[in-house]
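Consider the tokenized backbone below.
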């Protein structure tokens, strides 16, 4: 006969009661201890009591400050951080890339343009913003003689156009009309716009309404380069006074730390509408809206008061930072290309060496000299210093992995021969050669990926990657290695054939 079990609710209530009693006891004990401490402190002479009170207050304050620092949420900055880099450093990077046969033409052209604009002494202003915010209309208002094409459909500008304008005080400006961002399939145009914004001395960011999340991100990216930035609410005449004031107030609250100046303007431009005639007929009318850009002109006069020389340091820093970033990307791409070429070279050498051996060994990494050279060359390509002990430890660790998967590798190599019937009749020597090739191909790609991602010779990570590559090699890799073996065998046969 089973014994009755207590209801779960009663067990929960009992546990809750015990917990409450323990908590109450802890509170009472703490209060009692504090009361006793207070009594003892009150009985002390004043010369001993005062230092203790000061020390206690200091400890409590420090503890509270530490808890606040740990508990408060970290501030997320949306601004792009410009890493200072010197011209000499950039030139050295480009020289090193050129020696590695990398395509550095675009980087060199950016530096040439940097020098040309500095020598010209002219101030460049980039008009930046999404499509249909009125950039081309503003160009026409600032430089009437330029008269760029304006299309109410938006997205008219397809390349960067420079126009010479003038401020009310007579000083000249070079205005850059860049493609609008946010256009469908406009990635190339957006890159043109961003590049020109970096080259300019100052940027005018146009918005026709409250900023979207994408526009907010763009504004933060531009402000992060430290050059003067004007946030202009264009088409302000389409809002009534209360709406315009509310928008400007929101802009000030959100972007006062990013933008040097916030203004409301109307760049004018064409507008189309329908009107009803007296006889009831409707007709479409296109008219020009008069520009109202005095606040922007005042802001540009203030921003460019120091001339190009005063604005040049921030502009040069922005350009060099971007050239440095692109140089790093090119260096990574170059290292990837060189790594692939090196892996292919040593894979072929491993295959040739395996086919030349009289009897293939049980350890697929018996060709230690080739493996050592492969590791050292890949480390040199990625700029990672390695010691002899590190290389030996890596090859020993990977060798255990390879020995554990030798049967799998040989089986895969045997299956690969089915795609090349001519090799299938040549026996185990070719089979082991393909296995050697798969091992070197796997080791090389695993090591190259580890060096690229971790910038260190992480033996554990290389072993994990090698194990994964050997366990399930892709068909493309197996066919590539088998084809190398076929080519090596063909070349060997051609050399042995009597002349």
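A designed sequence for it:
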């Amino acid at each position: 006969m089973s014994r009755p079990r207590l209801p779960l609710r009663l067990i929960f209530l009992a546990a809750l009661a015990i917990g409450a009693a323990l908590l109450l006891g802890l509170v009472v004990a703490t209060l009692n201890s504090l009361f006793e401490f207070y009594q003892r402190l009150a009985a002390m002479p004043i010369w001993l009591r005062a230092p203790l009170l000061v020390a206690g207050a200091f400890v409590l304050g420090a503890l509270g400050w530490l808890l606040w620092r740990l508990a408060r949420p970290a501030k997320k900055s949306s601004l792009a951080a410009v890493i200072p880099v010197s011209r000499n450093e950039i030139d050295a990077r480009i020289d090193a890339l050129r020696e590695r046969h990398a395509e550095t033409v675009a980087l060199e052209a950016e530096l040439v343009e940097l020098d040309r604009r500095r020598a010209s002494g002219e101030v460049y202003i980039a008009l930046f913003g999404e499509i249909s915010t009125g950039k081309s209309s503003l160009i026409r208002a600032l430089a009437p003689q330029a008269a760029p094409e304006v299309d109410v459909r938006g997205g008219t500008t397809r390349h960067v156009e420079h126009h010479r304008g003038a401020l009310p005080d007579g000083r000249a400006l070079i205005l850059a009309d860049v493609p609008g961002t946010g256009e469908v399939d406009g990635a190339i145009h957006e890159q043109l716009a961003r590049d020109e914004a970096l080259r300019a001395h100052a940027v005018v960011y146009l918005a026709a309404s409250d900023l979207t999340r994408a526009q907010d991100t763009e504004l933060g990216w531009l402000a992060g380069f430290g050059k003067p930035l004007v946030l202009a609410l264009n088409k302000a005449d389409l809002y009534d006074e209360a709406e315009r004031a509310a928008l400007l107030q929101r802009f000030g609250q959100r972007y006062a730390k990013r933008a040097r100046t916030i203004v409301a303007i109307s760049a004018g431009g064409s507008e189309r509408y329908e009107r009803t005639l007296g006889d009831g007929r409707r007709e479409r009318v296109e008219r020009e809206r008069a520009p109202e850009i005095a606040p922007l002109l005042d802001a540009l006069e203030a921003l460019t008061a120091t001339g190009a020389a005063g604005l040049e340091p921030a502009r040069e820093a922005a350009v060099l930072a971007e050239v440095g970033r692109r140089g790093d990307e090119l260096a990574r791409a170059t290292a990837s290309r060189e790594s692939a070429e090196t892996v292919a070279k040593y894979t072929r050498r491993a295959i040739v060496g395996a086919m030349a051996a009289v009897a293939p060994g049980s350890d697929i990494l018996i060709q230690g000299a080739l493996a050592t050279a492969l590791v050292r060359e890949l480390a040199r390509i990625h700029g990672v210093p390695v010691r002899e002990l590190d290389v030996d430890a890596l090859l020993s660790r990977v060798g255990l992995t390879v020995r554990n998967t030798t049967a799998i590798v040989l089986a895969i190599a045997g299956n690969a021969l089915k795609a090349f019937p001519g090799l299938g009749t040549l026996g185990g020597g070719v089979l082991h050669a393909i296995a050697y090739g798969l091992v070197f191909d796997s080791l090389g790609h695993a090591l190259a990926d580890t060096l690229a991602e971790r910038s260190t010779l992480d033996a554990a990570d290389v072993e994990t990657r090698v194990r994964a590559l050997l366990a399930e090699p892709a068909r493309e890799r197996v066919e590539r290695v088998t084809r190398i073996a076929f080519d090596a065998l063909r070349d060997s046969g051609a050399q042995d054939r009597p002349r």
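Confidence is low (pLDDT under 50) at residues 73-81, 148-157, 358-366.
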